[in-house]
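Typical record is below.
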Amino acid sequence: MSHRPPSTSAWRFDHVNVSMADSRALSSLFENVMGLQAGYRPPFPFPGLWLYAGDQAVVHAVDDAGLAAEPSAVSFGHIAFRSEQPAALVIEQLRAHGLAFRLARVPQENTAQIFVLLPGGFVVELDVPDDDALPMSHTCSAQHASSSHRDF
């Protein structure tokens, strides 16, 4: 096994997001087998659950009634990374590389979410310090809390 030098990347893994019809499947694996613990979740206007490994919420699960026809259904939402880079710099880089994105804010936290859509529908969330000057593409409000809400 080869060892790589420490990364100098400004980004670190933050979480994976899944949608679920029923939390039993998630609980069985993530809580019962892997030992993750349910914990604090910001007051988003839609139901969900955050599971922690230590002090890091590594799984963000969103209740999705649209999946209820399939018992214990779970679908992939996105993967997220975090950085302390200024949001404007990240947006400038995304635009320079022709990457589509949407902006949102985490309620009651100083975090801007930049959702980047890659080919095939794969979504990457980039979490950076919020900047009040950013025009939000969408905000987390009751009108966006429908069961069919996706990042794009």
About this structure: Helices lie at 23-33, 87-96.
